[in-house]
Specification:
The radius of gyration is 28 Å and the shape is globular. It has three domains: 72 residues, Aspartate Aminotransferase, domain 1 (Alpha-Beta Complex), CATH 3.90.1150; 117 residues, Aspartate Aminotransferase, domain 1, CATH 3.90.1150.180; 249 residues, Aspartate Aminotransferase, domain 2 (3-Layer(aba) Sandwich), CATH 3.40.640.10. Helix 7 packs parallel to helix 15 and helix 16 packs across helix 17. 44% of the residues lie in helices and 17% in strands.
Length: 462
Amino acid sequence: MEQKELLRKLPSVDEVMKSPHGLKWLKSYPRRYILRAIRDIIAFKRGEILEGFTPDVSLNTIAGDIEIKIEKLVERRLKPVINATGVVIHTNLGRAPLPLEVLNNIMDVAAGYSNLEYNLEEGRRGERYDHVRWILKDITGAEDAVVVNNNAAAVLLCLSTIARGREVVVSRGELIEIGGAFRIPDVMLQSGALLKEVGTTNRTNSGDYEGAVDEQTALLLKVHQSNYKVIGFTEDVSIGELVGIGKRMGVPVMFDLGSGCLTDLRPYGIHDEPVVHEVVSKGVDIVTFSGDKLLGGPQAGIIVGRKDMIARIARHPLARAVRIDKLTLAALEATLLCHADPEKAREKIPVLRALLQGDDVIRRRAKKIQLLIRRDVKNVQVSIERDESQAGGGSLPGVCLPTYVVTLKVKGMTAPAVEQRLRRGAVAVITRIRAGSVVIDARTISDSEVKPLLKAIKEAIC
């Protein structure tokens, strides 16, 4: 067929839109993306013809190409994945998965109107923080609490309120950097507070703090080393000691806990993670921590402490800019209610369940995955090996969690090729590569994800 004839037979945009295909698409997809897909495919076919090819330009064939294009355009960019990395609080994968009852509470609140800032008892305007203030006070033992959108914002807000234009004393060993090159000194600079470093990277003592305090001192700041560990020839000032120094010298003390652990992990062999209520009980004036790390809830920055200081923080103009919305409040309140019973929290909250699950539970899950792969997938060598998981998310540095992993070697495919196919599949599976094998850590795979995992492996390999 001649080039001119092929070009003449190309359907117009209007013709496609008015066809049964176009009318069907309009019932399911946004009109703008239907039009974009039609124009793109027609332009592509026209280009092929002009280059000397003879593509099928019938409406039915073109409609198939257009529908694929439309589905690609409207595909959601933020989507669930299966975390097979063994990193429990994986920042790149959304950190803490939420318990079912938390998801249900979000749906209940989001589906209609709510009493976000309305006091039902008194019939007047209320305060949004009241919905979580009561339970934060109860669980942590603090006098008062306020919540913002993440812990960095919490630290920024506290420093802006308490120490703007004055000095904040902090150990050089605690000038941490978290993901994305986000550093404590930079936060302090933005707050208007003046950084006063004491001690050295590995050794800071009480005399260092005492010698740094003068009339310009607004705050003594302690920062938990939640994403790294200094070992060897070290010295540190405990939070109890720092509170004592603050009281003697009339300077408030703030502790940025970072991870924010409400559950005592010592019975599980993890001894270096401070528990929020224990820190508060030592008399710390202000404590900040995250909602989506060891707490296992939504992204949030939680501030607890002295009633008078919390009141000042909540009134600061910056508090409005970093406040949380109703969905975060709904999620956080429901998560905190799970923590009201520590025993049940370890089962209900996915992060705690993944961190603290027994060795035998992980091994059984790994064995099940191995058996299903051997049964349903050909040309693959699959084995179970011992390995180590990590808490991740800037939590529990140096803590290695014994685990079982399933390793895959596929005949005729490299490990990077298998990893890529799993990652790009209809159900994305995020794995690791080690020693030429694809590694699937059974710790971070829930029982409900085993079948979808198997399906994804079959589609990637077969």
